[in-house]
């Protein structure tokens, strides 16, 4: 019996080039599909059936032409047989081809760039959190595919805190982070923060890209994190409706949650280079990073992105736009597709569960600092 591959499901992405083999030994040659109307691609997620008793090599032939090929060395594919536990498996990158092997006792296995957080999972998150006391849910708008932009307001305090994630849909760790953050925000530990702040949450900024299996863009092939200077209903209705609500509430502190392909660590990036930058404004951002590193072994401050030169910040990116527009302490949080090497996990690497825990840690540190923002 041959092997069957399928990615025609929520968040799936793969194209079959060839399946060859007989008896015990098989090879599946694959390609990752581009984001619609875009050159971006790197996210993959597919199911393989008919694996029992076979030794199978999977080869992603176009990995070297992906958006961030420098992220493949040292990367390990996530695999699951139950869609709950996603373990790392040995992965090779050579000559532009990403490959990994599987010897299956069962017929079925799923393989992904990172543990998926699908739109079905998102719907269950929204239903669970919306039913809790003290939570107000609203649909801020709809996407080009007609999906809802879900929003929560929690708390009654004067400080306006915004948490938003998954502008880049292939960065599924961002919604795992939101899952943990929302659980904490709707529990008793959040009382101190919620008396000082009103917390506004958009768990998924890019539902269309999530469902379509995109890496970085929405249904129009637009990178939402380059739209914050001038969003439009035609290109970026997701940003348009969220920014309109931010204009209504104001923003004192914000976290934009992402994933990074290459750096094997959790880190934050700030808003250096905005026209209105002051050292006093930036000091609170740096203090947040220092406190978070002291609070959890799953964060560090040594590795990260280069800072923008004075006056050179890209104001189309949300962190810079919010810092300039509102004077907010604005944070981009990056989590790895690899592992947080300073506190590594050889079995799971960086994972959904650890992303959830980091969401809690970030809010615990924010609670300590809320009077400073």
From TrEMBL:
Pfam families: Pepdidase_M14_N, Peptidase_M14. PANTHER family: CYTOSOLIC CARBOXYPEPTIDASE, CYTOSOLIC CARBOXYPEPTIDASE 1. This is Peptidase M14 domain-containing protein. CDD domains: M14_PaCCP-like. Residues 115-373 form the Peptidase M14 domain. SUPFAM superfamilies: Zn-dependent exopeptidases. The active site is at 334 (proton donor/acceptor). GO terms for biological process: proteolysis. It comes from Sphingomonas endophytica. GO terms for molecular function: metallocarboxypeptidase activity; zinc ion binding. It comes from the Bacteria. InterPro entries: Cytosolic_carboxypeptidase, Pepdidase_M14_N, Peptidase_M14. Belongs to the peptidase M14 family. Its cofactor is Zn(2+).
């Amino acid at each position: 019996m041959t092997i069957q591959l399928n990615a025609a499901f929520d968040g799936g992405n793969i194209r079959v080039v060839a399946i060859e083999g007989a008896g015990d030994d098989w090879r599946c040659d694959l390609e990752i599909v581009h984001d619609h109307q875009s050159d971006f691609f790197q996210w993959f997620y597919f199911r393989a059936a008919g694996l029992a008793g076979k030794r199978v090599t999977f080869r992603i032939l176009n990995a070297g032409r992906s958006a961030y090929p420098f992220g493949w060395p040292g990367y390990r594919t996530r695999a699951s047989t139950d869609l709950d536990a996603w373990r790392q498996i040995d992965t090779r990158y050579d000559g532009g081809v990403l490959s990994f092997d599987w010897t299956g006792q069962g017929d079925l296995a799923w393989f992904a760039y990172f543990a998926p957080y699908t739109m079905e999972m998102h719907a269950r998150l929204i239903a669970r959190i919306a039913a809790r006391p003290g939570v107000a849910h609203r649909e801020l708008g709809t996407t080009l595919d007609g999906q809802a932009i879900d929003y929560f307001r929690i708390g009654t305090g004067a400080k306006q805190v915004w948490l938003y994630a998954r502008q880049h849909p292939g960065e599924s760790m961002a919604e795992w982070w939101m899952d943990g953050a929302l659980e904490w925000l709707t529990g008793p530990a959040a009382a101190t923060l919620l008396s000082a702040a009103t917390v506004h949450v958009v768990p998924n900024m890019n539902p269309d890209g999530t469902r379509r299996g995109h890496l970085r863009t929405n249904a129009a092939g637009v990178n939402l994190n380059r739209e914050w200077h001038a969003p439009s209903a035609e290109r970026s209705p997701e940003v348009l409706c969220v920014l309109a609500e931010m204009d209504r509430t104001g923003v004192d502190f914000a976290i934009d949650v992402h994933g990074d392909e290459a750096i094997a660590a959790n880190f934050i990036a700030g808003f250096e280079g905005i026209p209105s930058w002051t050292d006093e404004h930036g000091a609170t951002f740096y203090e947040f990073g220092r406190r978070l590193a002291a609070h959890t072994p799953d964060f560090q401050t040594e590795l990260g992105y280069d800072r923008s030169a004075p006056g050179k910040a890209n104001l189309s990116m949300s962190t810079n736009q919010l810092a300039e527009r509102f004077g907010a302490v604005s944070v981009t949080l990056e989590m790895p597709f690899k592992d947080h090497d300073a506190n590594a996990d050889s079995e799971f690497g960086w994972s959904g569960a650890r992303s959830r825990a980091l969401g809690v840690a970030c809010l615990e540190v924010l609670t300590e600092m809320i009077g400073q923002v």
